[in-house]
Amino acid sequence: MVWNFAPSGGWGYAQACATPILPGTERSSLMNRVALLTTSGLFLLLLAGCSQGAAIAPRSESSPTANVASSPTYSVLPVTPSPGRPTGDLAPFLAQLRSRGVTVEQVAEAQQPFLRSIGLRLRLSGGPLAGPVEIDSYAYDRPTTAADDAARVQPDTSARWTEPNGNVKTASFMWAAPPHFFQRDTILALYAGTEPTIQALLTDLLGPQFAGR
User: How many CA atoms lie less than 13 Å away from 20 in the CB half-sphere?
Assistant: First the structure.
């Protein structure tokens, strides 16, 4: 970067200032002062350039918004469409939960092999709940369809159902925690756990559990 100034920059100015003819000692002293001033000017110019470069260099710090938690989403997440699955509208059930002061966070799709509807896993907190809990919620196109799927679940939470080809299947499951099934109208909900406040809330909204431990 220094040598780019050599042909026509600061060095040309030093030569122009050195044009008058002076006695040897004075001329030498003047030339030394001119050279010193020119060199100092270039040095300051380089420092200014380095300072400007540092000011615009990208910062390695993470964005201040990177760790900001997003607000809960209350619109219903889309579920994967699948022919023959009687999936209905879950929004009214979410509205019922929110009307009780419950914060609803939609986590992911939920599926069970014995239920035809594709549901959503919900994380619930606040309101009457003692702490955050998760439930699986399923919406059906008609109340009769929801009741038919509920009938597949036995009182001990094993399942028995007939496939479209006529084969009858039965299954028992190892639940991570005691399961509780609730159903009313087009909504079916599954909670696995022992927290009484969520069981009381689901009983209030969907009626007593129809299967559970």
Answer: 8
CA angle 170, 208, 213 (to 5 degrees): 50
Residues 71 and 85 sit within 8 Å (Cβ to Cβ): no
**33: β partners:** none
**Percent of the chain surpassing pLDDT 70:** 60
Report which of residues 16 and 200 the model is more confident about. Answer: 200
Task: Identify whether residues 95 and 197 lie together within a single domain.
Answer: yes
**CA R_g for the chain:** 38
Tell me the pLDDT band of 88, cut-offs 50, 70 and 90. confident
Give the single-character DSSP code of 140: B
Looking at the structure, tell me whether residues 95 and 40 fall in a common domain. Answer: no
Range of the domain at 100: 91-212
Q: Phi/psi at 120 (nearest 5 deg)?
A: -130, 140
Structure-block tokens of residue 146: 């929801």
* Domain match, 41 and 107 both: no
Banded model confidence at residue 84, pLDDT cuts 50, 70, 90: low
DSSP annotation of 185 reads: T
Residues 98 and 44 reside in one and the same domain: no
Considering only CA atoms, which of 71, 159, 78, 145 is closest in space to residue 112? Answer: 159
Instruction: Enumerate the β-bridge partners of residue 212.
Output: 180
Alpha helices in the chain (DSSP H): 10-17, 24-55, 91-99, 143-151, 196-206
